[in-house]
Amino acid sequence: MIIVALLFVLVSAQGAQNISMESGTETFVEKTSQLYQDFDHLYMNIFGTEAIVVMVEDGQVNDPALLQAMDRLDKMSSSLPGVVSVQSVAGVVRDANFALTGESALPEDRMELESLITNYVPAELMPDGTHSLIYVEIAGSVSDEQKQEILREVETSVSLAEFPPDYNIIVTGDPAFMVSMNNAMMSSMAVLLGLSVILMIIVLYLVFGHVRWRLMPLAIVLLGIIYTFGAMGYLEIPMTMVSMAAFPVLIGLGIDYAIQFHNRIEEELERGETPAEAVVDTIKHTGPAVLIALIITALGFFSLVTSSVPMIQDFAKLLLIGIVMCFLASLFVGVTVIYGLDNMQSIRKEKFGSFSLKGKNNSKSSSKTSGESGPDILDRLLGRTTHFTINHPFMILSIAVLICAGGLAADTQVPIQTDTETFVPQDLPALMDLKHLSDITGGEDQLNIIVKTDNVADPETLKWMDEFSAHEVDNRNSVLGAESMASVIKSMNNGVIPGSEAEIRSLYEQMPDQQKDRFMYGENMLLLNLNIGDAMGSLGMEGIELLADVIRDDMLWMAPPPGMSATITGNSVVFIEVIGALTSGRVFMTYLGLGLVFGGLLLIYRDFLKALVPVVTMFMVVGWSGGLMYLMGMEYTPMTATLGALILGVGSEYAVLMMERYFEEKSKGATPEEAMTEAGVKIGKAIITSGLTTLFGFCALIASDFNIISSFGVITVIDVGLALFATFVIFPPVMVLLDNFRERRKAKKIIPDGSFDDIIEKIELTKHNSDPEADAF
C-alpha cells in the first residue's frame, strides 16, 4: 500500500507541472455564453488591444537625449512577436519630420523638437510637460504566457534604451498588472499553505495529545493535497484568484478524515484489540460514517458547480477532487501506517522485554487500561454540555431559532463589494503604478459598441455613429469622449462625413492599415469606443452598470438605420455581469445546497429523521452567519458569496459523524439521552480536534495579502466555529427530541389504547424504587 501511495506521488508531481495560472476573461465568463462571444471573439480578437505603458516622468519631454532613448525603445519593442504597434512621442515626431522634410529622423535642435511636439503630439501621449507615455500595444488574442514574455522583453528593452538618469521610468498598464498579480497569487498560495501547516501542527499538539503520533493526520492530508495538485494538472483545472484559496480549505477539511480514522483505531487499541482487529473495527464503524460525511460535504459543495462563473466552478471542482483524495489517503495510507507502526512498536517492546502482555497483544493495553485513567477535562465538559442541552431543549432551540430568523433578515442588508481593485493587495507595486497612470491620464476605461452593418462605407452608417457619439458625450456626464471610424473620416474631410460611398472608400484607401484595423473589420463590422475615464474609481461597478443600461436605452431611442445592429461590450460590461452572477446566485446556491444535502441523506439512510436533523442544524448556522456579517460590517465578495455552500459542506460533516455515533450507541441498548451523551463524549473529542484544526487552517487565509481572501478567511473561521457550536448545542436536543417523539409514536401504534400511560408510569417507577412488578414488566 505504501509503495502504491509513493508511486502516485510521482505521478501527481508530473501532473502538477501542467497547472497554469489564469486571470483573464475566461475565468469570469463561460466561453459558451453570448457575453463571452461578444467580448472575447468580437471585440478582443478583432479590435481589442492591451497596452503595456512605459511612463516617463520627472523631466522635460523635449530633451533630445530622452527622445533618442524613446526612439530606441520604440524600434526594439516594435519587432517583438505579438506587438501590434508602438505609439510614442518619438514616433510621432519622427513621422511628422518625415512628412515635412522627407527625413525619417529625430531633429537634434531642441527648438525644432519643441515645435513638432507642440503641433503634432496628441495629449494622450504627453499629458503634461513632465510626463510622456509610450504605448506598446498587444493583440487582444495573445495568451497570458505571451503577455508575460512580451512584458519581460519590454522591461529588458527599457534597460537597454539608455534613458537619461534624471528621468523616472515606470513600466505599467493592465498586462503588467495582471502578470504581477498572477505572481503575487502564486507567492501568496505558498505562504498560505505553509502557514496552514504551522497552525495545524500547533493545534494538533494542543488538542490531539491523547493519541500516539499526533502529527500523523497532517502528513496524511498533505499527501492528499499532493494527489489533488496532480489531478488538477491532468484535468486542466487552472489556478485562479479564487481557486488558490481551496488548498487551505482542503487541508482543514481533509485532516478531519485522517483524525477520525486515527482517533477510532487508537480507541479500539485501547480496548485491548490486536492491531488487525482494530483496523477491521475502525473500517467497519468509522469508514461508512466518514464516507457518508464525505458524500454530504460533496453535495454541499456541488451547488457551487451551478455558478455561471468559471472560477467558482473551478473552486468547486478542486474542493470535490480534494476531499476525495484526502479521504482515500486517510483510509488506505493513514490506517495502514498506524497499523504498521503499532506492530513495529509491539515487536520492539517484546524483543527488549519492556512490557508485559495484558489480555490481547496490544501495546496500548500494556500502558493504559480502561480503568487506569478517568475522563479528562474535555470529556467532562462535553458530557455536561450534552446533558444540559438535552434537558433544556425548548429554551435552547427557541433562542437559536429567533437568532437565526433575525440573521436571515439582516443578511439581506449586507452590502456587496463590487470594486474589483479592492480585492488585490493595495500595496502591490503594479497596482500603485496603475493608479498613478490613471491619475496622470484621468483613466482610460471604455464601453465598446460593436456595429454590424451590410456596408461599412455607407454614409448613413457613419452618420448614425457620429450623431450617437455626440449625443452620449453631450448628455452623459460620465462619457468623456468617443472614437470611431466616423471621427477618423471627419478629421480627414474637414470635419464632415462625405455624402457618397465612393468618397468614403477613397478616404479608406488613404488610411494606414493600422488605423483602419483599429475601427473596422472586413466589410460588415465597425467599432465605436466611448471613453468613460476612471469610471471604476468614480462610479464603481454599480454606477457603470447604470451607465451601460442608459446607453442601451439610448440605442433603442436613437435606433440604428435598417440593416444595422449595435452591441455594447467591453471589460467593464463583463465585470458587471460577473459580479451580478456571483452575488445574486449566492442565495440560490445556499438553498440548492440545503436541498442536495437533505436529498442525499434521505437517499442514503431512507430515514426522514436522519436526513432532517443535520440540515436543520446547519440551517441555523446559515442564519447566524448572515447576522454576524451584518453586525461586523462585512461585505459580500465573489468568495464570501460561496459561504452558504461551504457552511453546509463543512458543518454537515460534523453533524453526520455525531449522528452516526449516536445511533451506534443506541443500537447497543442505550436510551436516546444516554446514547447522545455517550456519543458527545466519545466522538466529541475527535470532532473538536478536527474542527479546531480546520478552523486554524482557515486562519491562514486571514494572513493573505489579497483582501478578497483575507475577508473570506475571517468569516469562514467564524462559520466553522458556529458549526462546531451547533453540533454540540443544537444537534443533541433536536435529535433526542425528535427521536423520542418518533419512538412514542411507534409505541402508540403497537400498544393498545389506554395502556400506554400505565406502561410509562411503571417504567418511571423503576427509576425510584425496586418494585419487583415493575422490574419484571
Report on this structure.
Strands 5, 6, 7, 8 and 9 form a five-stranded antiparallel β-sheet that branches. A hairpin with a 3-residue loop joins β7 (520-521) and β8 (525-533). The relative contact order is 0.11. α22 (571-605) packs antiparallel against α23. It is built from 30 helices and nine strands. The chain has helices at residues 2-16, 34-44, 64-78, 89-101, 110-120, 144-160, 174-207, 216-234, 246-270, 275-302, 310-352, 363-367, 377-391, 393-411, 429-441, 459-475, 485-492, 501-510, 513-519, 535-538, 540-557, 571-605, 608-631, 643-667, 672-682, 684-702, 707-729, 731-750, 756-765, 772-776; strands spanning 49-57, 83-87, 131-139, 168-172, 445-452, 481-484, 520-521, 525-533, 565-569. It has a domain at 444-576. By secondary structure, it is of the alpha+beta class.
The separation of the N and C termini measures: 54 Å
Helix content: 55-70%
Shape: elongated
Low-confidence parts: 354-373
Mean pLDDT, all residues:
80
Number of DSSP helical runs: 30
Class inferred from helices and paired strands: alpha+beta
Rg measurement, Å: 34 Å
Beta-strand segment tally = 9
Percentage of residues in DSSP E strands: 5-15%
| Main sheet summary | 5 strands, antiparallel
